[in-house]
Amino acid sequence: MGKVDKPDLPVLAIDLGGTKIIAAIISSNVEILARDYHLTLASKGPQAVIDRVIACIDQLLGKNNVELSQISSISIAAAGAVDSSRGLVTSSPHLPGFDDVPLRDIVKEKCGVNTFLLNDASAAALGEHRFGAGKGVKNLIYLTVSTGIGGGIIIDRRLYLGLSGTAGEVGHMTIEVNGPGCSCGSKGCWEQLASGTALAREAVRRIRQGEVSSLTEMVRGKLRNITAEKVSVAAQGGDPLALEAISEVAYYLGVGLANLVNIFNPEMIIIGGGMAKMGELLLKPAREVVLKRAFRLPAQAVNIVPSQLGDDAGVIGAAVFALKDLESKLELSDYLQ
Amino acid sequence: MGKVDKPDLPVLAIDLGGTKIIAAIISSNVEILARDYHLTLASKGPQAVIDRVIACIDQLLGKNNVELSQISSISIAAAGAVDSSRGLVTSSPHLPGFDDVPLRDIVKEKCGVNTFLLNDASAAALGEHRFGAGKGVKNLIYLTVSTGIGGGIIIDRRLYLGLSGTAGEVGHMTIEVNGPGCSCGSKGCWEQLASGTALAREAVRRIRQGEVSSLTEMVRGKLRNITAEKVSVAAQGGDPLALEAISEVAYYLGVGLANLVNIFNPEMIIIGGGMAKMGELLLKPAREVVLKRAFRLPAQAVNIVPSQLGDDAGVIGAAVFALKDLESKLELSDYLQ
User: Fold this and answer.
1) So what's the pLDDT on residue A328?
2) What is the pTM of this model?
3) What CATH architecture applies to the domain B11-125+311-335?
4) Given CB 3.0 to 4.6 Å as the disulfide criterion, which of A255, A290, A315, B151 pairs with B168?
């Protein structure tokens, strides 16, 4: 399984997130030739999401006058616990209903093209390691901090996927044992306290408690329309409530980062996802928490940096995952530890 | 550095824990030829502890009529954040005052024998992987649950030590962000809630609150003499308070295990250390928490088992670490990621 048949042809890479789908045509030397964005509309359930993925593929190829026979493979990076070897999304807090959905084979049958499936943050880790902030680094953790928190692990310059392919679910590390319930079924997961969703929730909570903020006017009183992005805009305008909400979330981000520093003693942690766009506003206080809570030696040694590839990390990594056979004659099983 | 000069001679291995020191003479084919136990008396500070380590070496060799010139190397597995490449104990919650102590070179100079230093749980992970419960497993986490909680990580059949050699400090993973303060400087560390120390503390807390237990009589009213071991004995006798205290600690053990399962998707987690002697009384409820809190696929895939080598895992692993050069021509730098 899993050999790229037509080595010089581009890969069609999909980054299937809880909020949006990115589709890209990526050349065999890993250049993005074309790119499309769509909303996932995850709440409509697996069949609707799969239909949209297929539609994204058709549209992107159509717009660029490329036939399915002119791509070497399709590679899908999906948000959730992915069993790469069997091609299943086994469960996903951000794609409701995706329980053991054989997404790889469904797409493969529909399109008639060899298809790969891996976790989105693992893909992004691979992308950043080969072409982004992590070039040349021996071991690193990549984090996508957006709707939730996903993680990808590079150890000894290789993607580490664990026994079944689900390694890196760091967003579901409990950091507050009796904390808020999570859609994964657990409580006090890191992503409940340090994601974009957590930031928006914290801002709304403060406004509901009577605190004043420019955010209220920004959403014309419709507090449910407050997003992490809007909190960030308000913070850049000096809004004290927005700044405090970010500081709160940065603290929790730092607590989880300290855990990863103690566990992995990594050379680098790369922060991607929507929240990374806040830059130092988020990262500086988070780094301070790491220095305070983690062991001194690994805390001082780690380099916590923003992603370089931004939104493209996932599709680039997905393409690398598909092209790996070509580069190194590795089989998928070589990725699975 | 780090070559074993005299390949057929035994290694003198030391497991330096917060409570006890184990010294062993281990043959080049990794059989334990002789073994000694001493108390660490860690509270007396680094110089006293180092003197005791040297005394342990002298005594063990003396008792067995072995000269320093008849061992190939000394290999020390120490509780704490160890910088293996520089031979330092950089800090240690269980060895007070060990801040950047060059333990490797101190022992090397004193004894005139090539000396190695690594973390105790990393050593035990190596021991269990080569000769214990983890034989043939591709990736596993070893945990020592005793005074504190230490961890060792095997990835792709090799010991993973991270950038500076301190990887695996899973006991200092925050699982309750505002939980009890830890001697590492952080709060709500796993070992504050799920170690032997936590178990004894929980039993004492319940007795102080007026609950009745056979433990009170067992220590003749001196509650500070309650240890995890005594709680375990009381539980085996059916003492309800002891059983409840164990159930509480097993719950927290499970919470941290679920984190490791989500992060690593490991094939196996091996539980060693004094607490492992409780067996299923501790492991069964902990496994149930893992199934409840971790993602389904990795939770069902992982095998959570007790250590096979028991107290010997650390010294055996330390010997393997020293002998590795011999086996595989690896340098120490090959262990450091």
Assistant:
1) 46
2) 0.92
3) 2-Layer Sandwich (3.30)
4) B151
